[in-house]
Structure formats: C-alpha cells, structure tokens
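Recap slide: HlyD family secretion protein, sequence and predicted structure.
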Amino acid sequence: MKKKYTVTDRLITMITGWLAGLVVIALAAWGINTLWGYYTYEQTNDAQVEEYVNPVISRAGGFIVAVKFEENQPVKKGDTLLVIDNREYILQQEQTEAAIQKGAAQLKVLESNIHTLERTAAASQSQITATGAKVWKQQLDYDRYKQLYNEESATQQQIEAMQASLDVNKSDHKSAEDNYEAATSRIADIRAEKAVVQAEIARLKALLDRHKLDVSYTTITASYDGRMGRRTVEVGQMIDAGETLAYIVNNETDKWVVANYKETQVAHMHIGDSVKVVADAYPGRTFKGTVISLSPATGSSFSLLPPDNSTGNYVKIVQRVPVRIRIDGAKKDIDVLKVGMNVNVYIPKKQHHG
C-alpha cells in the first residue's frame, strides 16, 4: 500500500509539473505576443463604430394617418415613411387658387374698362377737332360782322347773335377737351389699379407655391437609401412641425471608426496609414481601415465645459485625440459592424509614406 501511494504521488507531481510548465510557456508566449503587439502597433480599445444616423423630422404639423415602416426596416430613397392628414393644407391651396382666379377676372374687367375709355378718349379727341373747326369758323364770321358793324352795315343784334354762337362753340370745344382729359386720366388710374392687381396675383402665386409645398410636406419620404432605426410615432398621433419622428441610418455613406488615442501615441500617425480593426462582437475577424483624419484638438476641448487649468489646482491628465478611420472592404462584409459597437484599433508604428 505504501508503494502504491508513492507511485500516485509521483504521477501527480509529474502531471502538475507538466501543467505548470505549459502554463508558464503559455504565459510567456502571451507576454511575448503582447509585448510584440505594443512594440509593433499603437493600439487602443477606446474606439467605436460610427455612421450617419439622422433624424426624420416633420416639416408640417397634423394628425398621422399612416405609418409605412417598421423599426430596423431597410428603405430606398423616395419610399413613403409617414403620411399626415393634408385636408387643411389642400383647403388653403384651393382658397389661394380661387383668389388667383378672382384676380385674373379683375384684370379682364380692368382691361375692358381701359378699352372702353380709350374709345371714349378717341371720340372726345374727334369732338375736339370738330368743335375747334367750328370755333375757328365762328370766330371768322364774328370778325367779319364786327367789321360790318363798325362800318354800320350790320346791326347790334347780328353782332350779339354771332358772339353767342362763338361762345357756345368755345364751350363745346372746352367740354370736349375736358372729356378727353378725364378719359385719359381714368385710363392712367385703371392701369395703376391693374398693376396693383397684378402684384397681388404674383403674391398669391407665391403663396400657392408655399401651400403646394405644405401639401407635399404631409408625405414624408426617405431622403436616401438606409435602414430605419427607432420609431416614436403611431397612427392618430398629433405632431408639430419640426418634431423628430424616427431615425434613419444612411447607407450611402461609408462607415468609420473614431479611435480615441492618447496624446502620447499620435506622434507618428499620418493620414493614409493602414489600420487593423477587431470588433468585440467578432473577435476572430479582422477588418482593414485607413486613417482619414486626426482631430485638430483633443476630445475634452470640444466638450460642453472644456477644462480651464488656470482656475484651480492643476493635475496633469493624459488627453485623448480622436482619430477617424474609414473601414475598407466590400459593403456586404462591413455591414456586420453596427453603429456604436466597440472595437480594438491597431495602427502599425512604422509605415512607409511615399
């Protein structure tokens, strides 16, 4: 029995030794690999996937009568997302159209009045010519009778008759001139009134265009190819203009990663550097990327309340510089990366730049 326990102890000791050796070798390999990684790459796990996520905003208020999308649904540019009750907007449009028609009718009436007054003015002008001729003839007759009267060959009654006829003709001539001036003045007034009506019609046409826009705003469509995000509306809900109704992720733009590197890591980074990206969701899969920009300031400088080290005790804190990295590759391959996912970013420290 004593010999059996001794063999067992030796076996356990040997196995334990092998396991300890394997653990030491594994730790050494892991340590060497980690050190080599830190020596070869500038790396950070303070990085997230980014993509344009835009709100769907209503430009018109009213009751929702149809919601034609579901959360996470892919949509194409121009697809109808929401429909708002447009009856009030259509009534406003029809009222403006009726006002434009009324203005057009007023223009026709004014044109007719101008035509009538032009004919009246022409008739008055003819009367001016005719009465002017009569005045001229009557003046000659009066002058002749005046001469005869002076020679005592005409009577006082004849002179008075000639004077009366001359005064009547002059009065008719003056009346014709006044009628002509009144007609031309009225034509000028109507033309001014016509200009006012034309300006009002122009204003109403602009207002009609606005009403048509308001009607078009009651149908909300996708501005680009994308995927719908969170939905916050339902049929029958009353909304206001400018209200956010949903979110859409833009499929027409590239995905990128914002990696927040320590300020001590960015000295040798350049635009165009190749990047290796590993997502926490897919640890066995590597994505390739390219540095497309480095932030002009640290992240804290863009915060709502940037630090002011002159206001109190100073404690030095290593700052982070956002580095923007475009994810390269086929769209179907990188679609697995979702906005907000955490990733690990590796940028080689030594890269060739031509």
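The longest strand covers residues 286-294.
The chain has four helices and 15 strands.
(End of recap.)
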